[in-house]
Structures
1.
Amino acid sequence: MSMDNVWIAIKQAAVGAARDVLYPLLDPVLPAWITPERLMMFASAVISVVSILVIVPLVMMYLTWAERKVVGRMQNRFGPNRVGWFGLLQPIADAVKMLTKEDIVPARGDRFVHLMAPVLILVPTLLVYAVIPFGEGMIAADLDIGVLYFLALSSVTTLAVFMAGWASRNKYSFLGGMRAVAQMVSYEIPLVIAAVVVVMRVGSLSTVAIVEAQAGLFGWFVFQPWGLFAFLIFLAAMTAEANRSPFDLPEGESELVAGFHTEYSGMKFGMFYLAEYFSALAQCFLAATLFFGGWKGPLLPGWIWIFLKTFVLVFVLFLFRGTFPRVRVDQLMGFTWKFLLPLALTTVFVAGLTYYLPPVPGWIVGAVLLTGTFFVLMLPNRRVTLVRRACRLEN
Amino acid sequence: MNGEVRQVTAQDLLAEVGRLQAAGFDYLSLVTAVDFIAEDQIELVYCFYSIASRKGPVTLKLRLPRTAPRAPSLLPLFRSADLQEREIYDLFGVEFEGRPGIKRLLLWDTFQGHPLRKDFQPDDDDRPVIMDERRGQ
Amino acid sequence: MYGLGLLKGMYVVLRNFVESYYKPERLVTVQYPEERRPLPPRFRGFPFLIYDDDSGALRCVACQLCAKACPATCIELTMAKGEDGKPAKRPETYTLDLGLCMQCGLCVEACPFAALAMDHDFERAVIDQPEPLRLGIDQLRRPFSYLEQINPEAANALAPKPAKTAAGAEERPAKSSHGGREVTT
Amino acid sequence: MDEHMSANAPAHDPELLDTDLLELSIGPQHPSTHGVFRMVAKLDGENIAALEPVFGYLHRCHEKIGESLTYLQNMPMTDRLDYICGPANNIAYAIAAEKLAGIQPPERAEYIRVIMTELTRLVNHLLLVGFLTNDLGAFFTPVLYAFREREKILDIFEAITGGRMCTNYARIGGVARDFPEGITAEIRTLIDAFPRFLDEFELLLSENEILQNRCVGTGVLAAAAAVNAGISGPVLRASGVNYDIRKADGYSIYPRFDFRVPVGQTGDTYDRYLVRICEMRESLKILRQALAGLPDGPVQAKVPKLFKPPRGDAYGRIEGPKGELGFYLVSDGSTKPFRYKVRPPSLINLTLLEEMCVGHKIADAVIILGSIDIVLGEVDR
């Protein structure tokens, strides 16, 4: 029993125990139609749901801690180190603070929509974890339309963000909500097309099949030219979907105070905060699955590999947050429609083309075609040639 | 006062400023007022500099009666007079003609009185000046 | 290339991140309550009254010059009456209103008898506020040795006068860059 | 609500769509207005159709207080004007009072004043560039790098004057106290390490595409309009006008130093950012020469204890970090100034704020305001 499927063994043991111990115990109480097999199925479902609901929030809590430590170190300071050893209790302190803070609903705001928005943003981002393969056979629901399910659910959050913006009856949050809708809708398309590239090559929407298709170290799709470009597009679109750094317009602190969640406080604000990190984490998991070969990897067991790859991607998101200024609304739109979308379409074309060519020449053709399009597409976007402007020194 | 100082009257202020502007003094650095309560006059002080020739300040001084001071506005000629004239109107009560409109710069619109005048008495010594409406109730 | 500037930016931030683990100047936080940065001697906290270590007598002669010099009028003092009813050259009450004082140091410069100096105590936060913000003589008095310890440069400028204090202020050492005559009120 | 803004609603004809302009009040309680400054913006979507600045939230009647205090008692008050550049304000006020009374400070005091002003210029530009990128959205990283350097300078101020920001250091006729021992060595190490920091800062920001996209072409200020609006300092020089009061007036001992004046080309936000970075490099040159030539001698001219300037008026001005900082003093022979007027560069640089912002987006209005570099203590006095 190698380390790889230790969790599967534990689960089977638990399910077995449910049948041997639980069923005889509850037999007199249970109605007739619950047979041992059905009880086992129900027990395994409960176990996978509970394990996700325990692990993911835990990882997310310490993601917030890690972000503040990492961005702190980038800024020559420590980051939280007062609450607990190395600041490890900081997330718990934040959670308690969120719970105890007063929960304000704006007077003339739309009370019901204001209450529903945080729920509608949190639920889809949690549901999305059902299709993420944490390891060999360690997947909550091995849907054969996994990627479609993921993308469909993650686009529901757009609606919730706009509800929050509208219901707060505050000009800043309204503007924030409108920006969020524009941004998330237009970044949905390159995100989907980048995922379609991989699905097209693998031939199946199921995340497990996608991971299976990336055999061996150089089998990862990211080493294919079209895979690399699809990953870059996915990375850009993912940052925009999660409203994170260069594209954090909906909650642009410096201009819109706090964007769509200006009027939220207490646990409702906490739910927005959670949802933001959940969706960023989920999309990093999906990127790792699609392009970096999920749980595939030498030596270490599968489920450690996927967490490693995801944390590398999350570190890249932290780096974005620590470095980039914010893009303006119209540049944001221009970047998507004039740069990401055409590039995504050419990536799909190249992926299809190289499918029929033998591997090595296909690789070269793909690489040449894609880098060519990259530079060609840059021309209309480079309204600002790289300004090497220095001021003239006079006396 | 260093540099050249000229006394002007309200009538020929605009002409004088026009001549200065033509002579290359295109930078109006300072517009301020001084309340000479003893002589019952308010004096407006304008400082002009020339950017190109870097010549020193030419100062124009304009004496106005203290009761209802009215002065021609330099806004049509110099945009830098805009905020400074509003401040003089706000703190000294000098009316400026020839500009689209004037509003108090620093104090709130319903404030009574002009604080920088020597004879200004705040409403209550210990409490800050209370706004007009509140006093109304 | 379009993204080069962004990559350079990421390089700088990454270098800061990595170097903060082994280069001291890349990690500048001073953990305040545990680590403390030494205060420079000229630091200006609130003023305090100096008394000679041996005689314990305040050097202040209640001449009101500091009260007049203070822009925020936060010093009030009254001269004490001697046993024979004549005014004695020492203050009976000397109150400093912390709420008004802006720690500008003009009182110290105006005092010809070098009876005032600037303290280094800035941790005055209290949870409850029992005594009002107005400090009396007993809270303001500090020994001359304390001044030598926190601000040696000012201490030798305000060296204790060799003669008796009550004999009127004769000329103190001429060259004193801190406080004393030259500075105008 | 006023009727439809048909005159300058740019994008579309309101009669057709019967739309109205959203009036958004940015400030006085807003994270990026550098203090309590308010802009009432009329928005057509995200574009700004009209923008009206509102002042006065931090008005403390500084000039009325100035009339009730003696000349020396005003000195600590000037720290509170532009509370980021304490020493520069003190020195400007001292220069004006000396012009009023015709006093000439000794050589060493002049050198110390130049060193303190140039160090203040570094502090101000560091803070500006940091917060400009913070308004752009770079989440506190450039600000904290700039503050790391600024702390070193503030430590030097604290060692010299006793206060980090409220220095109260200049006196009429010189400076309050001489440099403590070893401070010149400390300043020299700071100056030697500074260019390396500036290069790293430029590497992080100057060629950053997002920053260039946002700053190039935003808030363009034409040279002629800037001069006519009395705009001074780096904002004026970024518009291509070569006017620096240190060169123009040649006051104090600046003519002895060899330094250049950076001048921008187009006058947009990116030029205002670049001019400040180059100005920091020039300040380092001045500091090196001033430290090398620092003479010995007294730091205070003979000024009577009760300073009573002769009747008359005087206008003294310096090239402050934000622009032309001037003090106009009228004396009636008493120990208190009869009229004490401050010429605030921050306020007058805001004259053309509306013209610069109209047509841009809200996000641009925020960085245009940031690039003009205002401090509300000086704007509202």
Note: Chain C is about 25% helix and 15% strand.
2.
Amino acid sequence: MEMNKDTMLDLYRQMWRMRSFEELAATEFKAGKLQGFVHVGVGEEASTVGVICQARLTDYTTATHRGHGVVLLKGAEAKLMYAELGGRATGLCKGRGGSMHMADLEKGILGTNGILGAGAPIAMGVALGIKYKKLDDVVFCYFGDGQSNEGGIHEAMNMAGALKLPIIFVCTNNQYGMWTPLTKASANVDLAKRAEGYGIPGAAVDGNDVLAVWESAGVAIDRARKGEGPSFLELKTYRYYPHSVGLPDPWRPKEEIEEWRTTRDPIDRFGKVLMAQDVKQETLEAIEKETVDEMQEAFNWAMQQPFPDVTQAYQDVYTNLAVEGRTV
Amino acid sequence: MEMNKDTMLDLYRQMWRMRSFEELAATEFKAGKLQGFVHVGVGEEASTVGVICQARLTDYTTATHRGHGVVLLKGAEAKLMYAELGGRATGLCKGRGGSMHMADLEKGILGTNGILGAGAPIAMGVALGIKYKKLDDVVFCYFGDGQSNEGGIHEAMNMAGALKLPIIFVCTNNQYGMWTPLTKASANVDLAKRAEGYGIPGAAVDGNDVLAVWESAGVAIDRARKGEGPSFLELKTYRYYPHSVGLPDPWRPKEEIEEWRTTRDPIDRFGKVLMAQDVKQETLEAIEKETVDEMQEAFNWAMQQPFPDVTQAYQDVYTNLAVEGRTV
Amino acid sequence: MRNMNMTFALRDTLRQEMKRDERVFLVGEDLRQGTFRVTVDLHKEFGEERVIDTPISEKAVMGAAIGAATVGLIPVPEIMFADFFTCCFDEIMNQMAKMRYMFGGQCSLPITLRMPCGISRQAAAQHSQSIEAFLTHIPGLKVVYSGTAKYTPGLLVSAIRDPDPVIFLEHKKLYRDSADIGDEDQIEPVPFGKACVRREGKDITLVATGAYVNDCVKIADAMAEQGLDIEVIDPLTLFPLDTDTIYKSVEKTGKLLVVTEENLRGAWSGELVSIVAQDRFSALKKAPIRVGALDTPIAFSPPLEEYIVPREKDIVQAIMALK
Amino acid sequence: MRNMNMTFALRDTLRQEMKRDERVFLVGEDLRQGTFRVTVDLHKEFGEERVIDTPISEKAVMGAAIGAATVGLIPVPEIMFADFFTCCFDEIMNQMAKMRYMFGGQCSLPITLRMPCGISRQAAAQHSQSIEAFLTHIPGLKVVYSGTAKYTPGLLVSAIRDPDPVIFLEHKKLYRDSADIGDEDQIEPVPFGKACVRREGKDITLVATGAYVNDCVKIADAMAEQGLDIEVIDPLTLFPLDTDTIYKSVEKTGKLLVVTEENLRGAWSGELVSIVAQDRFSALKKAPIRVGALDTPIAFSPPLEEYIVPREKDIVQAIMALK
Ligand SMILES: Cc1ncc(C[n+]2csc(CCOP(=O)(O)OP(=O)(O)O)c2C)c(N)n1
Ligand SMILES: Cc1ncc(C[n+]2csc(CCOP(=O)(O)OP(=O)(O)O)c2C)c(N)n1
Ligand SMILES: [Mg+2]
Ligand SMILES: [Mg+2]
């Protein structure tokens, strides 16, 4: 695949942006500065960047409970995201949503979701809407290996196939649910296989190779834009953190985590590719540093934001109907 | 496949029993003697008989909304079934269930179901129970082509595969839902393909050839009994009646119905096979007649049964708690 | 004015709104035929892009509606029998109802979810249910349930034009009701939150829903001959609820009877009695009474079905107790 | 007697019942670890055949339970957060609850469905809900929701030994509560339908559920210093409901306050007020009051979450109004 160096450097930067965002979120969650559940995708950057960084602004995406990266890289502002994670009034969703309900509709981001699999029927509906409006935008529908066993995924894939909708199903296969391994959850771990059953082309890709992901996502996007229907990408990857920051993680062998981290890290790997193409180590280090600074600054901003006024508790339930607050 | 003539004649008889049961149900429904919805499976006899007539008494089955045949041939008494369809006190389920809720637990019949796809997770649970108890019984899980797109089917198939449960998924593919054709409902009409995605062997079989169905079901049953896990059978067939007796049926070409009825009828076809093996036409006609008489007699009995006393309205909600009736 | 039965009045309403606004579309199972014929043949006029027959996948039907709404369309999904809402309850409760709020008001979801409900023709336990209590309990939803043919089409107009998710319950028995409705393309919206006083009266306030509204009007008329003057109210929308009209009536009569087809325990009728007891306690002269279905599934057998849901004599008995 | 926190008390109860009866088994997502640790490591003692980690498929979890129950087993499925009941509501409502009845009493389904519910730690709109109103409305189900640590394990024993489907709601905040429970293998069943009077009083009847029971007892104790004698009742089981105890209390006090974490509209608390208004109207001296969550989804932000569910001052205000 041909890709110019600027694009490649940008991909590298985006991977770091995601990682720096997530690492800081994890650190600050542990420090008690953020609430709720925080599921971070450290280790999964190639699978996110390689797909979502090809999206147009007018394209759409859904995201899972582990969706900060998708939200960030589809264009949401980091500072608003941190403010959301901190429950602040100026957060992306006014602090009402938190990590599992982060949306930015102007950017085509239809939200992370606290219900596994629930994004898929909705993403399919967005694709239906695009087709209805005769646009050539596309929708990205993310889900994990674990939730691929939810009924809604099946219904959405089948209907997308039947109606030839412009949607790309992206399965981030990090090989585990919360604790249960994929090998226990399904007799056939070759998830791309399922897509064929719906007449949808499926590809299994090394999800830690950003260029491979980019290439296969490109094919899928093209197909969708041309009105040729949905595609399915299974991206094999790994997460370094426990399921949710702070939870125990006894079900994955320590060595397995170590191995993925040290020998298969998507950023490291891509850094080596870039260095082989004469990018200097300092350049890469500078990028890393810039993203760490960017996120720290965004976080600092967020922490200075006010918490919402309690009247915000009962706004926006309806568009044209008021809900009553408390009397004391 | 080797099969002795007695068995073959019995299969022929069972096909007729199902047809005669259904024809009479349809006729009497139209005559206003039966209530509710009545979905009959006339035309689908081979796909039912070829599978369920291999079941042991201790095996289990679920059935769909179009499930009279399965219930009858798994061993329920026709007269009790008619009484149920007529809402009588002595019906299979005391008249509380009707066509869509016909069960006979002693015979391993876990019920027809008014909710499409709902039988599958339950059947999977029965298979789990069998495995738990270390028995070698098996479960038959019926569903139609249309409802194969329900989420619960996906969840049940995947879990059955993951746990290697003794279950046979039987998809009665009559190519239509109520009115919508399979070709519109799915981009890939090869439904057996889906099973592979769950690591389940799938076979597409001529569902109007009772011997072919018998053979493939036999393989699946063997596998399940030996603890080797689930199988999937897609049985291509056709129904002659509208979706539900009395409904309009404008979405299937008249010629298509005619063609299936005249050239591919499963009973006719099997009759020809038998005649080629020197069974006399009179023998076959006698069998037909006997089943017509059997069903008429059963129906007559049913129509003489009393309707339930209204106190039956509030019995059996709980096992050990009374529900109150009315005071007037 | 045209006199039509509800099936065709609703169909005509859908037509009008689809003609009026290109963003309006129908999505559901077997709509081209229409199980109750409400949508029959509309695809001939609007094309299969706007009358979408889906696979048999309720989660997908609702997902289609929600997703399309987020990109500016106005979906009118149908769940063929209300009982099947269980198959897409997550989409209804955790997604559609909450999305606007969770996302800080970034979107409105102008979805009208049509669902035929209630008993009719011995359809048994999974095709006969009244589900309003489940839906009125969910913040973010509006719930229409009209027992008054005259207003049902106009309520559908309002539902489709409403920016928020509206659950539109249609009692199957009422499809055969007829009413004068507006001329073609002239069906006017009927506002939400305004109850219909079907019969004025000063002795007892009788609130009924769905198919029981007509029955209760008839019973009230008959009781009038015995000198009992019953006010019969059809709330039309269960949320927003016209508490004004109901409270005023109770202030006048001091007596409340609620008749619905729901299983009594946990029914919407309980919510109504409870708010009246809380907000108009001193107006009540007698204990309010609810009449509803027994707390059982709906049985198939005709005499059992008939016994399970409120019968005329149950309603009369309650009226006599309040007298 | 052993003093334990609820997490481990419930775990110990499951152990006891699994030891007692080989037919008892656990099925759900990630049980070997246990999101709230209630089931942690039980597979080490009972094997993975009896502590079944399923794929992430709630319909399959419930199907597994229902199917296994029909062949004589005693399943204890878990839905990880009560909010996800929406993903298997058909299995709960149209299958499990109705099967015995529809099939003419041919089977009993001795299923105990455990579901952690309620708000805790800013889990936001899809992980914080109170769902008792949905479940108590369904004929065929029994619903346990204890706010009293002392009885919770015994109620679980009863649930598992009960022949019918039981919904067992566990408020997440109560996992940290502790209580004296019976010695190993000596946890006695606590009967269904018998409320616990947590505090006797003669001035006001306060019925609370879940995490609010303890809070209300504390508030009542504090109010006692002001000369107000409040009776606090934890129903323990919402169905069957101990109306005897509640009605007797209302007869004594003439005043009813119900405090729950539910969205108020359509809440279970409304059902309670409604039956008291119907059955004990003349005992009521004042309008009953319900305190509940606002009719909004649960917001994530800490001050909003805190504001949405009843706060001490809301409860005190209601008490003052009843005084
Ligand atoms: C419907 C539903 N069931 C269960 C959960 C609890 N849960 C949250 S994340 C998770 C594991 C998801 O695994 P996977 O889909 O592989 O995504 P990953 O966490 O690996 O990114 C589970 C079981 C949920 N949020 N929603
Ligand atoms: C959950 C649910 N959705 C929809 C229906 C309505 N319905 C009943 S039968 C049917 C068609 C079923 O088609 P298929 O599965 O192919 O079975 P067939 O009728 O062809 O035997 C539909 C849509 C239902 N009963 N349950
Ligand atoms: Mg995973
Ligand atoms: Mg079919």
Note: The interface with chain B takes residues 25, 27, 49, 52, 54-55, 57-60, 62-73, 75, 90-91, 94-95, 99-108, 139-140, 142, 162-164, 240 of chain D (CB under 8 Å).
